[in-house]
Design brief:
52% of the residues lie in helices and 12% in strands. By secondary structure, the protein is an alpha/beta fold. It has four domains: 32-297, P-loop containing nucleotide triphosphate hydrolases (Rossmann fold); 335-496 and 653-706, Up-down Bundle (Four Helix Bundle (Hemerythrin (Met), subunit A)), CATH 1.20.120.1240; 507-628, Roll (PH-domain like); 741-808. This is dynamin GTPase.
């Protein structure tokens, strides 16, 4: 530390941080820094205030630090603070510093506990500090408060990860001593990005609050959960001390006495406490900057040369140069091609790390949307009560002998209306994924921020316009379903069919045995609640069929651990603990029976939420439905106390079965139509919107070149003379013969075409009468009604009578 050059290293990095914060860019430089990580109420704020010797950080319940605070401590003869966003203003009262942090946080995040990754830069000059720079990050939380989004836990985790995942970032992991170290949120996060513990410095707070007779000597001596840079223990002021305005210098003296007098810590008192921690961090950061500076300098010089070269090109650029427009069109062309590939899955480069836009949309169509539909499971008692009331109200004062059709239609229409929510949510999810895909594709335009901004604006605006059209069409589809209840559908149990489908027991391909043995899904899952008791979570290979869920030791499927029948099982979500990076769901028995040995439920964990959704969709196919939340209220009490006479009960049962049958047809139709509607009105339209921009790039000569080279992706019709269609080509087609392998492929595709077209025919047969009823017949009836009513006005009556008189 005697070297003057070494002392200037931390201020040098401070100037770089200020420069990047001022321009809102990082230049992709991984600056050496120290990030402070810890759970709420772990003592982070007290440690930082002890460094400064002043109370200057906001305090309170819930999330207090809601934006990263870059705290630059600079040794100086005078004492004051400066904010980067308040240039030239010196704060000598540290209460004003606290208020300014609150005001600047609220300016960006609002007053309802929202968070933002935009940092606040605070520089503190004091004779009591050593040169040191720390980044104070939001405390880890699990429960949203105020107007915070439900995923606030994951937002905070993502923000923390943005800093600590960088190789040049040292991690100051703050953990209270009265918490089990194995449950430390800070150490868990640090271990995720620094498994060897090379970049992590452990800080143990609240040593004075431990139970009598207990200590953390093994931790501080670096024997339990060792870190390369070790642990430092500190004693902070208690909440009572803070409220009583206890002086920090007095608190530091009390901390010193604590370590000197404690039998477990007195032998290491010189390596404990806040002053030692500040010296250690100063030394560690200085050495870290020194070690990383050569690579940092080399990278910065490379970027500087690249920027100089690009600036020289712009100096020689003529605004009227046609090549400038060509460059812009080429960039737009690449954007369009990239977007199309991400949606349609074409192209040479396939992402093997995560799902791309098109694959995510496919998952929304075929996993998320069906799952949302099933979540609307009927409340059986409520439904039967509604049916009985509908029957009684339709009969009125009369005693009904037959089951009324109108009761069936009223109940069905009410259930169809409930589909509006899941359908619109499906559109919202697809639109959001499209916008995310657009933003990913425009990343390649980051060197041209104005072009990127305008491209995003145009395409996103178009997507939003299509969103409105798609939602209108979805609502129209539901209106069409409501306009005509097609009880003549061949799948409806109330229809006297001419041709009955082949019963399952006569069709060996659809027999219950074959169906039950069909494997729906295989994959790795972690059993959470059982494995933890035995020393840690463990992965097993799971196999789901229509009848059971089995798990094996590994994917060779030789050693089966257990087979769980699916009877009376349901699935529910489990809140993800911050200690775990996995996402959890649970399977349980609706009859309160144990599902495995002495366990009432089975907690299963996946690496991502997408995997959880996919497994829940697979369980749905096997008949394991999501848990339905019950509401205890007046309606439930009425349903329980409601009783029916035998005749009414039979009628209710009849209509209940008819509703089940018809709604299964509606669900099937909606599940089929939703992807097609969104594809037609949104996704295909977005791709068409982008394509004209690409095509406008090609001049006449380029178009001619494009046509004459069949390797390029264009319509195949431009490669064949017109005369070839009815001549030689047809003759070749007639004499065409196939080898056996090709013949089998043709037969397979022919059967698939038959199968799919039967679905299309059935859908069209069902939709045509409903569409005509909604768009034509019902509209005509509405149009005629006012005419009929107007006939009865006085003037109309006189006009008709006079007209009749003259005719006579």
């Amino acid at each position: 530390m005697g070297n003057r050059g070494m002392e200037e290293l931390i201020p040098l990095v401070n100037r770089l941080q200020d420069a990047f914060s001022a321009i809102g860019q990082t230049c992709d430089l991984d600056l050496p820094q120290i990030a402070v990580v810890g759970g709420q109420s772990s003592g982070k704020s007290s440690v930082l205030e002890n460094f400064v010797g002043r109370d200057f950080l906001p305090r309170g319940s819930g999330i207090v630090t809601r934006r990263p605070l870059i705290l630059q401590l600079i040794s100086s003869t005078s004492e004051h603070a400066e904010f980067l966003h308040c240039k030239g203003k010196k704060f000598t009262d540290f209460n004003d510093v606290r208020q300014e942090i609150k005001a600047e946080t609220d300016r960006v995040t609002g007053t309802n506990k929202g968070i933002s990754s935009i940092p606040i830069n605070l520089r503190v000059y004091s004779p009591n500090v050593l040169n040191l720079t720390l980044i104070d990050l939001p405390g880890i939380t699990k429960v949203p408060v105020g107007d915070q989004p439900p995923d606030i836990e994951y937002q905070i985790r993502d923000m923390i990860m943005q800093f600590i995942c960088r190789e040049n970032c040292l991690i100051l992991a703050v953990t209270p001593a009265n918490m089990d170290l194995a449950n430390s949120d800070a150490l868990k996060l640090a271990k995720d990005v620094d498994p060897q513990g090379h970049r992590t410095i452990g800080v143990i707070t609240k040593l004075d609050l431990m139970d009598k007779g207990t200590d953390v000597r093994d931790v501080l001596e670096n024997r339990l959960l060792p870190l390369r840079r070790g642990y430092v223990g500190v004693v902070n002021r208690s909440q009572k001390d803070i409220e009583g305005k206890k002086d920090i210098s007095a608190a530091l003296a009390a901390e010193r006495r604590f370590f000197k007098s404690h039998p477990a810590y007195r032998h290491m008192a010189d390596c404990m406490g806040t002053p030692y921690l500040q010296r250690l961090l100063n030394q560690q950061l200085t050495n870290h900057i020194r070690d990383t500076l050569p690579a940092l300098r080399s990278r910065l010089q490379g970027q500087l040369l690249s920027l100089h070269k690009e600036a020289e090109e712009y100096k020689c650029l003529n605004p009227d140069d046609p090549s400038r427009k060509t460059k812009a069109l080429m960039l737009i062309q690449h954007f369009g091609l990239d977007f199309e590939k991400r949606i349609e899955g074409s192209g040479d480069q396939v992402d093997t790390v995560e799902l791309s836009g098109g694959a995510k949309i496919n998952r929304i169509f075929h996993e998320r949307f069906p799952f949302e539909l099933v979540k609307m499971e009927f409340d059986e008692k409520e439904l039967r009560r509604e049916i009985s009331y509908a029957i009684k109200n339709i009969h009125g004062i009369r005693t009904g002998l037959f089951t009324p059709d109108m009761a069936f239609e009223a109940i069905v229409k009410k259930q169809i209306v409930k589909l509006k929510g899941p359908c619109l949510k499906c559109v919202d999810m697809v639109i959001q994924e499209l916008i995310n895909t657009v933003q990913q594709c425009t990343n390649k335009l980051e060197s041209f921020p104005k072009l990127r901004e305008e491209t995003e604006r145009i395409v996103t605006t178009h997507i939003r316009e299509l969103e409105s059209q798609a939602k209108d069409q979805v609502l129209l589809s539901l209106e069409i379903q409501l306009s005509y209840i097609n009880t003549n559908h061949e799948d409806f149990i109330g229809f006297a069919k001419e041709f009955y489908p082949l019963p399952m027991f006569l069709n060996p391909d659809l027999s219950p045995l074959t169906f039950s043995l069909q494997v729906i899904r295989k994959g790795w899952l972690t059993i959470n609640n059982i494995s933890l008791i035995k020393g840690g979570a463990k992965e097993y290979w799971f196999m789901l069929t229509a009848e059971s869920l089995s798990w094996f030791k590994d994917d060779e499927e030789k050693e089966k651990k257990y087979m769980l029948p699916l009877d009376n099982l349901k699935v529910r979500d489990i809140e993800k603990g911050f200690m775990s990076s996995k996402h959890v769901f649970a399977i349980f028995n609706t009859e309160q029976r144990n599902v495995y040995k002495d366990y009432r439920h089975l907690e299963l964990a996946c690496d991502t939420q997408d995997e959880v959704d996919s497994w829940k969709a697979s369980l749905l196919r096997a008949g394991v439905y999501p848990e339905k939340t019950t509401v205890d209220g007046e309606g439930s009490a009425q349903a329980e106390s409601f009783s029916m006479d035998p005749q009414l009960e039979r009628q209710v049962e009849t209509i209940r079965n008819l509703v089940d049958s018809y709604m299964s047809i509606v669900y099937k139709s909606i599940r089929d139509l939703m992807p097609k509607t969104i594809m037609h009105l949104v996704i295909n339209n977005v791709i068409k919107k982008i394509k004209p921009v690409k095509l406008s790039f090609f001049s006449c000569k380029m178009q001619r070149y494009y046509i004459y080279y069949p390797g390029l992706p264009t319509s195949s019709s431009v490669f064949f003379p017109i005369g070839q269609v009815d001549g030689e080509g047809s003759a070749q087609a007639e004499s065409f013969s196939m080898d056996p392998q090709l013949e089998r492929q043709v037969e397979t595709i022919r059967n698939l075409v038959d199968s799919y077209m039967s679905i299309v025919y059935k859908s069209i047969r069902d939709l045509m009468p409903k569409t005509i009823m909604h768009l034509v017949i019902n509209n005509v009836i509405k149009k005629i009604k006012p005419v009929k009513l107007s006939f009865f006005s006085c003037k109309m009556q006189r006009y008709v009578l006079i007209h009749i008189f003259y005719l006579i």
